[in-house]
């Protein structure tokens, strides 16, 4: 159902089924398509749409029909993630589209909400199907194993999946260590067995001021 055309355009072939995508991300379609804007608050999909604590808004649309629909957003690189009954945790700004059959919601993330524009919650996607996530530059998929925990700068974090525990540790960021920042900051520590997606371009964060 999901396929990439190049690295920055997602093509979704539909035969009467539906896909949920970031509002305004449709760039072209053929065949017969119907578009419906989804909004509100609460649990499930609506919980993904509204971040109450910060006022962050993420509007989602449902596309249903027969044909092919193409999606893109600000020339971001797109990565396909196959879910087999597991759960994907992804920053809301990095989620482009999901199979309509996947369940979406939110989870509290604590300090990682200090990343500007990402609120105190992150989006969860679970079930069987595909999701498309975006990155600023080609994403790197890093494995976390019980023997090798992974430390990630919060500005570079996109998503993670698998049996992974995350925690936050204080200390200098990588930029501060090399004299490019100031003040105490935090990093995200991942332990367990799973995958972490990071991007080569960091979001601005206020971590250096914590």
From TrEMBL:
<dbReference type="InterPro" id="IPR016031">
    <property type="entry name" value="Trp_RNA-bd_attenuator-like_dom"/>
</dbReference>
<protein>
    <recommendedName>
        <fullName>AIM24 family protein</fullName>
    </recommendedName>
</protein>
<dbReference type="InterPro" id="IPR036983">
    <property type="entry name" value="AIM24_sf"/>
</dbReference>
<dbReference type="Pfam" id="PF01987">
    <property type="entry name" value="AIM24"/>
</dbReference>
<dbReference type="InterPro" id="IPR002838">
    <property type="entry name" value="AIM24"/>
</dbReference>
């Amino acid at each position: 159902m999901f396929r990439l055309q190049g690295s920055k355009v997602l093509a979704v072939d539909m035969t009467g089924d539906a896909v949920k995508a970031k509002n305004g991300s449709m760039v072209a379609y053929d065949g017969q398509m119907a578009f419906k804007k989804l909004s509100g608050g609460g649990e499930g999909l609506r919980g993904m749409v509204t971040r109450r604590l910060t006022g962050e808004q993420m509007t989602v649309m449902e596309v249903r029909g027969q044909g092919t629909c193409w999606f893109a957003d600000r020339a971001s690189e797109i990565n396909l993630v196959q879910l087999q009954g597991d759960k994907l945790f992804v920053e809301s700004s990095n989620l482009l589209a999901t199979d309509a059959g996947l369940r979406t919601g939110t989870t509290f993330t604590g300090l990682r909400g200090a990343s500007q524009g990402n609120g105190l919650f992150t989006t969860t996607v679970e079930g069987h199907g595909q999701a498309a996530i975006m990155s600023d530059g080609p994403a790197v998929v890093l494995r976390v194993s019980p023997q090798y925990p992974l430390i990630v700068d919060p500005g570079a974090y996109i998503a993670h999946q698998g049996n992974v525990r995350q925690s936050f540790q204080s200390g200098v960021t990588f930029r501060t260590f090399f004299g490019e920042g100031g003040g105490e900051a935090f990093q995200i520590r991942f332990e367990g067995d799973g995958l972490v997606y990071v991007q080569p371009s960091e979001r601005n964060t206020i971590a250096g001021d914590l």
